[in-house]
Structures are given as C-alpha cells and as structure tokens.
Amino acid sequence: KQEVTQIPAALSVPEGENLVLNCSFTDSAIYNLQWFRQDPGKGLTSLLLIQSSQREQTSGRLNASLDKSSGRSTLYIAASQPGDSATYLCAGPQGGSEKLVFGKGTKLTVNP
Amino acid sequence: DAGITQSPRYKITETGRQVTLMCHQTWSHSYMFWYRQDLGHGLRLIYYSAAADITDKGEVPDGYVVSRSKTENFPLTLESATRSQTSVYFCASTPGGSYEQYFGPGTRLTVT
Q1: In Å, how far are A13, A17, A19, A65, B105 from A79, measured between CA atoms?
Q2: Chain A residues touching residue B102 (CB < 8 angstroms)
Q3: Cβ <8 Å between B98 and A45
Q4: Fewest 10 Å CB contacts: which of A10, B13, B57, B108?
C-alpha cells in the first residue's frame, strides 16, 4: 500500500532564498508523482507531474525531481517570493491505479 | 465555464439530513474522484469513477453514495449526515493514462 510522507510539516524562510521541499513514498513501482499547491481556503492547483521515465520536470522557478530507487521526490523553489507562501502537497498513485495517495503537505511561509 | 466546478461551495445541514454535493467537469475526463480534507488526516479518497456507470470505493466510503450516469457529472450524497462528516470536500478529474488530476474549488460542509 502506497504511503506518502512530507517533512517538514512547516517551513519559514526569508524572501529570495532557494528551498527544497521533500516527499517520500513507499511503493517504488510508482509511475508518476504530482506536486500541488493549496492556498488557504482554496482548492488544489497542479504544479508539476513527473513521469517515472523522467528524472526532473521544470516550470518557471519550480523544479521537481523523482528518484524511484530511493523513494523520494523533491520540489525545488528558486528565489522564493512572499507569493509562494502556501501549502505544498505531493501525491503518488496507489499501485497501478489512477487513485492518488497524498502526503499531509508542507506549509511554506516566505517572509518579506 | 470550462473546467471543474462544485456546488454548493458552502453548506450547513443538520444531523440525519440527506445532502448531495455536485461536481461537474467540461473536459470529458474519464476519471472522477471525491476526496475529503480534514486537519490531521490530509486528503482521503472517498469514491472514484473510471467512466459513466463505473464507480468504486476509496479509503473512507462509509456513509456516502455516488452515481455517475453522465461522464461530466459525479454527485456525492451523504445519506444521513453525521457530525464526523463535517469537512471540506474536493472533486477531481483526469483523463487517466498518467495525466494530471485537476481539482475543483471545494465544498465546505458543516453538519450541526
């Protein structure tokens, strides 16, 4: 059974800092992993989807990596801004299905 | 409007009443999902559907009923609401085949 863990639960950084959010999963047969952003009181916005055949995926200041052998994914945010403050969630599929298992998220605060 | 919508956005109901939450997507995605989000538990899958007339249970299905007579709609019914069903409910969809899941804005349900 897939289990997804995100550490730390909360992170506070000064504006401009580069940072890494971590996500670990137990099923190494994972075929993709998705990163989401959630603002308070809002829905989830998809940021990046990494396929198992890829090692990295980039969108603007965001870069996500996937290492199946170690059961880890990271989300790198470059030159953080106060507008990046949100909760970031990662999710991986349950077995070979379309069902996603979510981590509990990392709440990021970027201080001006 | 294109995308995935949920209604109502906010709902207060009493214990024992039947409540239906609506989800509508305009992309003709095959897969649709219902999640609930609670502090301490994160996002948990309630039910999902792979196509019209095909539904299956997720992690926390007790007390909920779903149907999917049309591809674009996936209503979630609480047959007899309980206080433990107070939560934020999210609907999501995906075409499947390693594509992203897209989330609706959520319904905040309070059972008194």
Answers
A1: 11, 5, 8, 18, 28
A2: 46
A3: no
A4: A10
Nearest CA in chain B to A44: B103
Residue with tokens 């580069």: A18
Q: How far is CA B47 from CA A49, A80, A92, B21, in A?
A: 22, 36, 17, 13
What does the block give as tokens for A107? 């709440």
Facing residue for B104 by CB, picked from A43, A49, A104 = A43
Size of interface A-B (CB pairs under 8 A): 49
What confidence score (pLDDT) does residue A31 get? 85
* Look-up of token digits 């019914």: B77
Residue among A44, A51, A105 whose CB faces B90 most closely: A44
CA distance A88 to A21: 8
Neighbouring residues of A110: CB distance < 8 A, sequence distance ≥ 6? A12, A13, A14, A15, A17, A80, A81, A82, A83, A84, A85
Tens digit of pLDDT for each residue in B3-34? 999 999 999 999 999 999 999 999 999 999 99
